[in-house]
Amino acid sequence: MDAAAERVARMGVFDPDGVSRAVLEHATGRWGSLTLAALVEGPLRFAEVGRAVDGVSDRMLAQTLRRLEADGLVSRTPHPTVPLRVDYDLTTLGRPIAQRICDLIDAIYQQLPGIVAHQRRSAPDREPVA
Fold first, then answer.
1. From CA 31, how far away is CA 79, in angstroms rounded?
2. Which residue segment(s) compose the domain that 93 sits in?
3. Could you read off the pLDDT of 31-57 as tens digits, one per residue?
4. Which residues form the HTH hxlR-type domain (predicted)?
5. Starting from the edge strand earliest in sequence, which strands make up the sheet with 85-90, in order?
6. Count of domains forming the chain
């Protein structure tokens, strides 16, 4: 086992009851990772996050933002306007995580031609998953 794998194992991320696992799931789940990536350029209103994370329902986006806020990764700033305006932004805890998620997205994008080719070889009669 290399040093990074040993470090991860010591963090308790493989323990289903561990705090680090819950935060990992919030940050890297389907909607959490896309939400964090959408906020990497700066604050967005709820509808703007929803447009950036195309396909997420309002209910799921609200739940995702609440979880990320509870973990300290996202801040919620309401403005006393009519109608109420709320901005969401990355916190100092969330910014490095969001940047690494963007790095992961970039790495996947770089490998995508090979991934699609592999999917086609593995199941030539099906469309690639990507």
1. 25
2. 3-122
3. 999 999 999 999 999 999 999 999 999
4. 15-116
5. 44-45, 85-90, 74-79
6. 1
